[in-house]
Design brief:
The structure holds two protein chains of two kinds.
Chain A lengths: L12 E8 L3 H8 L9 E9 L3 E9 L5 H4 L2 H4 L4 E6 L2 E7 L5 E3 L21 E6 L4 E4 L5 E3 H5 L4
Antiparallel strand pairs in A: 1-3, 1-4, 2-3, 4-5, 6-7, 7-8, 8-9
Chain B lengths: L15 H14 L14 E6 L4 H13 L3 E6 L12 H11 L2 E6 L4 H8 L4 E6 L5 H15 L6 E5 L6 H10 L5 E5 L8 H9 L3 E5 L11 E4 L10 H8 L6 H4 L7 E3 L20 H6 L1 H13 L2
Parallel strand pairs in B: 1-2, 1-3, 3-4, 5-6, 5-8, 6-7, 8-9
Classes of the chains: A mainly beta, B alpha/beta.
Bound molecules: zinc ion.
């Protein structure tokens, strides 16, 4: 029997399950969700999982994340699954998959990249060039970034 | 892909068919490089050099004039409103209203790509940061093609600052369209970037990286030399220690094949001994002289009717 967790079920929103233990906060960061938003979020860390040993879970009350939004989670938590909840029921469930393109979330680490020039209308944009581990190339200057490098420059 | 109206932003955008088509036209243009061929009469080329580069700029301007076209533009930030705080994007919008094609050089990497997104007129990248210089790569490959009649099968050494030299990235991208063997020769601190290594792996280019030309000189058909700058070394003593090993001398070339062609994007400082100039190995002057016909071909293909 799976024990009902410390956190109650949500009525409507998104449950991100099967996050590798310890990565829940990074998942929130990459989604751009922080306390200042006033979003109701529940974090469950280090619970037992048959698949992962230990896992984290994130529950976001009242907000359904779209597939475009959740792709970026795969950079941090490739094993994550997304559950969309309405009226306490799971209405959609899928595994995250790596995005081919990431727009606006991270800064390019190249100081002379055009995207880092003030006032220029070049949006931060990265293209996935390798999957394991993920490597993303700045679409303007071509510089490669690991996920770790990108997380240090989150916008 | 059709050439007409096309942006020229990175060397990777041009496959071997595109390049061979360009080379055939450049070959025809050689006959007009000292005269005129009025195929672009009435067209205006904007030459926007936010960062000066006399050689590249004059080569584009001469090419456009030999084709009967007009040139407007500036060199250095003084000629623009950049000093007054105008953005690069706004300067490009202004030029787009005046010209049929815009040649851009800028210190920011990715600047030409942004210009191409903004402008309706085709944009040609004449160098952005250390990342791309596609027309130099086209010229480099054209020089090989003219000298050997082919590019497939060549063994090509690239020696010097492979990590930072702006021409090397585009050169390797362009060469990855052909069946070549690459020998990258550099001190360990200036080994290629991961982007370049990854490109060669993804495109199955045969390559080795060595720190000494002597090991491989006998295998090469082409030795492409780029400068090693002192500022790239944290330790000046390290620079003094290594610089002699990446200098081309008649002694080094005496170990090479008789037809070994030495190339250099120019200007050079002291990485090629002047005694090499008078040997049959010196290919860099011819390489420079082919810049105008190659750019005539490029402008004609992008802008011609
Ligand atoms: Zn960049």
């Amino acid at each position: 029997m799976e024990r009902e967790l410390v956190v109650k079920k949500i009525r409507r929103g998104t449950v991100i399950d099967h996050i590798p233990a310890g990565k829940a906060l990074q998942v929130l960061r990459v989604l751009g969700i922080d306390a200042a938003d006033g979003q109701v979020v529940a974090l469950v860390m280090n619970v037992e999982s048959s698949k992962l040993g230990r896992k984290d879970i994130v529950k976001i009350e009242g907000r359904e994340l779209s597939k475009e939004e959740t792709g970026i989670i795969a950079l941090i938590a490739p094993t994550a699954t997304i559950n969309i909840i309405r009226d306490f029921q799971v209405v959609d469930k899928y595994k995250v998959s790596l995005p081919h393109i990431v727009v606006g979330r991270f800064r390019c680490s190249n100081p002379i990249c055009i995207t880092n020039m003030p006032g220029e209308p070049a949006t931060y944009r990265f293209v996935l060039v390798r999957e394991e581990p993920p490597i993303l190339s700045c679409d303007y200057c071509g510089r490669y970034h690991t996920v770790e490098e990108l997380m240090g420059s989150i916008t | 892909m059709a050439w007409r109206g096309r942006d020229v932003i990175t060397a990777l955008d041009f496959d071997r068919r595109d390049l061979e088509e360009l080379f055939e036209v450049a070959r025809e243009m050689e006959a007009y490089a000292r005269s005129r061929r009025d195929v672009l009469r009435g067209k205006v080329l904007a030459v926007a050099f936010f960062e000066p580069s006399t050689r590249t700029r004059l080569s584009f301007e001469t090419a456009m004039k030999r084709l009967g076209g007009e040139v407007v533009g500036f060199s250095g930030p003084e000629g623009t409103s950049a000093e007054k705080g105008e953005t690069f994007a706004d300067t490009i919008r202004m030029l787009d209203a005046y010209a049929d094609c815009i040649v851009v050089r800028h210190r920011a990497e990715g600047a030409a790509k942004l210009a191409a997104e903004i402008a309706e007129a085709p944009v040609i990248n004449a160098g952005d940061g250390a990342s791309n210089h596609p027309t130099q790569a086209m010229l480099d490959l054209y020089t090989m093609w003219r000298t050997f009649g082919r590019i497939d099968g060549l063994s090509i050494g690239v020696m010097g600052d492979i990590r930072h030299a702006r021409t090397v990235n585009s050169l390797i991208q362009s060469l990855s369209n052909f069946d070549v063997s690459l020998y990258l020769i550099a001190p360990e601190t200036l080994y290629p970037r991961r982007e370049v290594l990854d490109l060669m792996e993804r495109r199955s280019v045969r390559y080795v990286v060595v720190d000494n030309a002597k090991e491989v000189i006998g295998k090469l058909d082409v030795l492409y030399v780029v400068r090693i700058q002192k500022e790239r070394f944290l330790d000046p003593l390290e620079y003094e220690r290594v610089k002699g090993s990446y200098r081309v001398t008649p002694e080094l070339l005496s170990r090479g094949k008789p037809h070994l062609l030495v190339m250099h994007p120019l200007p050079r400082v002291d990485e090629i001994d002047p005694a090499v100039d008078s040997t049959p190995h010196a290919g860099y002057f011819r390489q420079a002289s082919l810049g105008v016909p190659l750019r005539m071909a490029l402008l004609y293909m992008v802008l011609g009717e």
